[in-house]
Amino acid sequence: MQKNSIQSLSKLAVPLKSKGRFFRENKTNLRTDFQRDRDRIIHSTAFRRLKHKTQVFVNTSGDHFRTRITHSLEVAQISRTLSKFFNLNEDLCETISLAHDLGHTPFGHAGEEALNKCMKKFGGFDHNIQTIRTILFLENRYYDFKGLNLTLETLDGLIKHNGPIKHLKKFNKILGKNYFRKKIKFSLSPSLEAQIASISDDIAYNSHDLEDGLNSNLFKLEDLEQVPVLNTIVFKHKKKLKIYSIDLIIRQIVREIINEMVKDIIITTQKNIKKYKIKNLDNVYNAKFRIVSFSKKMKNFDKKIKKFLRKKMYYHKNVQANTNLGKKIINKLFFLISKNPEKYINVSKYDKSNIARSICDFIAGMTDRYAINLYNKIK
To answer: What is the reported pTM?
Structure first.
């Protein structure tokens, strides 16, 4: 069965048989290498914790707002749709999508900003690199090695989530110098599967943050009419307000936004494959331009919607009050734990040679409510 699957994939796809893992393991006939990767992510502690980590709204503020785990599942669904269309390695695409936020702190990007400042003298903090750190060192579920021992292709896709890596300074400081021993070619472009996971992240962010913003009354449908692409969609659905509830109309608008963006990616990516003469996987890795992308019109929409969400949602006084509290909690926790690390963390589980990094790992792994409860207990 797997043999037929391997033969039926596109020449641009990452093959179902991996190039390998850091630590050698016995193969299984039940699952491909990338199905095993996906399952390891889903069963990891870090993935479970995402259900209590902020997307935009602090996790304690409502039952129906998105968290990191629902966001990751939505990214995975969009990426599988695109991957299937292009006949790529769906399991790899899904794995990268599910794993891409494993390194996120509590309190979203505000938490990341605070932790990066706390770690300024010790190499800094970056949630994308923390995802790799979590996978390589912090998830311990096996006798024979630390980490999840994911395939090199999955690691490559997660490392290059936002494209080729030109500067390794931060990687070396956070992961250890030359950890990958030339197994990852940082300067090459990511696989199409990784590019799809990345752009699906953008689609999920834009569309679902809009839905959460509308549902929380941070802005109204009328406000969306100033955004190109959105104005046509909103105008069409607003006519139905006399027949259907506002909740249902919002859901239909979000569905249509996702649909429009996915269709745009398919058309633009097909053009790019032709334009850049992408015939095989080597062509993908050596491409100097992003192959999976939006059209100019949709890039403009993406920029405008991000600007709209920043102004109306992320910088809204109610959201800012919570994110500022999140920053305060993380700063205080880092300060207090640094004074007596052994009181709060099992130092033997972490890197004894770098206590600051161990404290950073501990705080980055916290859920919103765990961080709030610990802060209230020790402040």
So the answer is: 0.93
